[in-house]
Amino acid sequence: MRYISTRGRAKASGFEEVLLAGLAEDGGLYVPEHGPEPFDAEGMRRLQGRDYAEVAAEILSRFAGDAIDPDRLAEITRESYAGFTHRAVAPLVQIGTDEWLLELFHGPTLAFKDFALQVLGRLYQHVLEKRNTRVTIVGATSGDTGSAAIEAIRGRSRASIFILHPAGKVSEVQRLQMTTVHAPNVHNIAIDGTFDDCQALVKAMFNDAAFRKEMHLSGVNSINWVRIALQVVYYFTAALALGAPDRKVSFCVPSGNFGNVFAGLVALRMGLPISRLVVASNENDILTRVLCTGEHRLAEVCPTISPSMDIQISSNFERLLFYMHEGDAKQVSALMHDLADKGVFRIDPQAMDSIRPPFVAGRCDDAQTLSTIASVFAETGLVIDPHSAVGVAVARQRMKEDDEAGTPMISLATAHPAKFPDAVERAIGIRPALPAHLADLHRRPEHYTSLPNDLPSLMHHIRAHADAAQG
Ligand SMILES: *Cc1c(COP(=O)(O)O)cnc(C)c1O
Questions:
Q1: Ligand 1 centroid to 108 CA: how many Å?
Q2: What is the 290 CA–ligand 1 centroid distance (Å)?
Q3: 414 CA to middle of ligand 1, Å?
Q4: What is the domain partition of the chain in residue ranges?
Q5: Average pLDDT of span 124-139
Q6: What is the reported pTM?
Q7: Which of 90, 117, 119, 428 could join 80 in a cystine, given CB atoms 3.0 to 4.6 angstroms apart?
């Protein structure tokens, strides 16, 4: 399997390069050149009733081609999902007539990011051993990616990881999940600045070709195609459990960077019978606006009680643009340049029509988020987190408007309620408890380095603490 860039000016790459590089050299995002090979009804029936890890290996092998030995791949997915605390890995819970919740928060760091990153960490180690080299992973986080990446890389001999977070601007649980991990290859840095400052520092290091080469820099942010491929898996297991390939289902996805819901589109292209992919936004509703109007216009980020979706530039949207324009990289590049130059681009109505259906979109503000946490609790006794509540609220709006009665609507529950205890307590008066493996989180000692918002000091720190330079 070969991968090409959405901007059309990087050379085609194999699975291993795509895994290690993340972003293509021309600034575009990798997508498969062809395929992947879709499942027919028989192929899907063969997946029914199998273990989550087995389905994951089967789906991932369609993206890896012959780059990774199938037995090794099966072992990697088995190890990755063995650490999840629910035996079903991604259980489905019914919350209404035709209404389901897909719980994606039973991984080690309690958010859906674990589904991809647990596997990614092991794939990295495998490929780096094979190539006898090392990498330095650098990333910025505003929330859940940092802890999921640290958990995936801790203790792996071939990689060091440096995660920057804005000092004082991530939730306490989110900070503790990162800073209480003690492993010689894990380095947390609190930057005196905002999340945007952190991201700008990371970008600047990647743009410094000499430093990038010297340190063998690598990124694990959500533009990495392998993360998308691994998120395809739970769309399959959920739809199969509710009757696929013989019955269609719809999904509603609380969205920020557009990675998770884009994986739903990939599942559809692989033959899964999906009726609607509902994109749910909080007050930062750029995705909803662009899907409803075709105009993508940047606005200020406004802080909400679902902070992992407080995003204005949804990087993965570029992949949707590529598919909408039938793989015309010139048109994608032109739109992305408009965005960089003028802060806005407009999508041709015909291109928009090509993705509607399956895509529909809706938004939900903080007040509706809180009332949805309360109504789900009153109706079912289930406590959901604010991100999942945005999804349920928007799914319910759609179910009222749509003539899709009888089609199951599956809302993705993207985080555990204990990650956002303040919002949950405001909604229902109950502070959700952390699961057993994190129960003493607040008593664990923290380790991190505080640095100013200054590139040379940061580079000096990374050079002094990474051990990739000789590799
Ligand atoms: C990352 C995240 C999202 C947004 O997912 P995208 O793939 O960026 O659209 C939603 N909810 C939670 C809890 C997250 O951590």
A1: 16
A2: 18
A3: 7
A4: 92-110+225-428
A5: 94
A6: 0.95
A7: 119
Quote the percentage of the chain above a pLDDT of 90: 82
**Which tens digit of pLDDT belongs to each residue from 295-304?**
999 888 888 9
Residue 36 tokens, joined: 């992947």
Q: Which residues line ligand 1 (CB under 6 A)?
A: 111, 113, 143-144, 222, 254-260, 308-309, 387, 414-415
Rounded Cα distance, 347 and 364, in Å:
24
Nearest-CA residue for atom 14 of ligand 1:
308
Mean pLDDT of the chain: 94
pLDDT value at position 64?
Answer: 96
- For the domain made up of 92-110+225-428, the CATH class stated in words is alpha beta
Which residues participate in catalysis according to the annotation?
113
Residue 260 alpha carbon, nearest atom of ligand 1: 7
At residue 470 the predicted structure's pLDDT band, cuts being 50, 70 and 90, is: very low
User: Ligand 1 pocket: which of 117, 177, 319, 414 to mutate (most atoms <8 Å of CB)?
Assistant: 414
Rounded to the nearest angstrom, the distance between the alpha carbon of 110 and the centre of ligand 1 is 12
Pocket test for ligand 1, best of 109, 230, 255 (most atoms within 8 A of CB): 255
Give, for ligand 1, the residue of 102, 103, 257, 419 to mutate: max count of ligand atoms closer than 8 Å to Cβ. 257
307 Cα–ligand 1 center, Å = 9
Please write down the HEC assignment for all residues of the chain: CCEEECCCCCCCECHHHHHHHCECCCCCEEEECCCCCCCCHHHHHHHCCCCHHHHHHHHHHHHHCCCCCHHHHHHHHHHHHHCCCCCCCCCEEEEECCEEEEECCCCCCCECHHHHHHHHHHHHHHHHHHHCCCEEEEEECCCHHHHHHHHHHCCCCCEEEEEEEECCCCCHHHHHHHHCCCCCCEEEEEEECCHHHHHHHHHHHHHCHHHHHHHCEECCCCCCHHHHHHHHHHHHHHHHHCCCCCCCEEEEEECCCCHHHHHHHHHHHCCCCEEEEEEEECCCCHHHHHHHHCEEECCCCCCCCCHHHCCCCCCCHHHHHHHHCCCCHHHHHHHHHHHHHHCEEECCHHHHHCCCCCEEEEECCHHHHHHHHHHHHHHHCCCCCHHHHHHHHHHHHHHHHCCCCCCCEEEEECECHHHCHHHHHHHHCCCCCCCHHHCCHHHCCCCCEEEECCHHHHHHHHHHHCCCCCC
What does the pLDDT look like over 43-73, one tens digit per residue? 999 999 999 999 999 999 999 999 999 999 9
